[in-house]
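Q: For a teaching handout, I want to show students what a protein-ligand complex looks like in token form. Below are the inputs, and the small molecule is NAP. Please produce the holo structure.
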Amino acid sequence: MTRALILGGTSDANLLAAKIARAGVDAIYSYGGRTRAPTGQPLPTRSGGFGGVSGLADYIRQEGITHVIDATHPFAAEMSRNAVAACADTQTPLVALERAPWVRVPGDRWIEVPDLAAAVVALPETPSRVFLAIGRQHIAPFGEKPQHAYTLRFVDPPEGALPFKADVIVSRGPFTFEGEVDTLRSRGIAWIVARNSGGDGARAKIDASRALGLPVIMIARPQLPERLRVESVAEVLAWLGHRTCLGA
Ligand code: 3Y8
Ligand code: NAP
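A: Here is the structure, written as tokens, with NAP included.
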């Protein structure tokens, strides 16, 4: 009998949860517990870490999980690595629902960097106005360049002091092109720092930057271990349905 664990927390995972619920597949949706009031799901949910690889392996055994779907964000590298290891340990089928990265198109002014530290280096020395759209967990390194006027965007209001003076927008997305053009223009933003999340929920700022001719410091995705990857919810359902009908 199929019992699927969805490692969620993204818009793709939300689409998948809706389809799996409609298909009547027994499944549980897992949040990392990063936000205060996550979007509701049409499935039973759990929230918070499992306790590393062994914690996830124990959870899989105790809950009788038969399939794991990693629908986390491309930058949720630790969760994805743990899923590969725990599914190998417990011999549990694993598939990753992973959106394709954005690719540069004519008009894009991207400065592609391998990681967060390189993104800080890529910012100019002369004071400018910089939009950091990378979530609250990754802003501290920009304190090395306090000369800039930063605008930050978070899902939840910041708790406690920020590592440097900044304007904060509290919004969870997904975002619209018009809304992003307005945000960038009204705040006189001259530089955007983004992560190559892919998908539609975060891409509006990339399209707005192109329209406004603004440079984007684009942080590449972390390397992930080899695992079965699909890009659509339909492929995940086929993968589930395929094994289910084989009774494996
Ligand atoms: C808790 C689930 C939906 C899902 C929406 C997607 C699209 C909007 C755009 C910007 C970039 C960023 C951030 C972002 C987007 C979607 C999707 C996506 C980027 C929620 C969610 C959780 C999180 C966690 C949060 C991170 C942060 C990243 C903000 C729910 C809303 C920057 C990713 O403040 C914090 O601590 C935020 C932490 C992880 C990046 C980070 O690493 O700091 N997402 N985002 C998930 C959990 O607990 O398991 O609350 O309902 C999901 C979404 N965020 O409703 O359709 O799918 O990508 N989320 C990035 O770099 O792109 C915002 O501002 O332009
Ligand atoms: P991460 O750094 O890869 O994960 C760190 C630890 O958080 C994991 O080892 C695990 O703890 C726990 N965790 C993460 N996702 C989890 C999940 N879905 N269910 C249970 N535990 C989870 O992850 P992250 O980048 O902080 O992302 C956290 C969550 O936000 C993910 O669900 C992700 O899909 C969502 N999200 C992230 C981004 C982003 O840019 N990173 C964007 C949108 C949404 P244990 O080791 O204790 O099990």
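A: Two things your students might notice: The longest helix spans residues 77-90. The radius of gyration is 19 Å.
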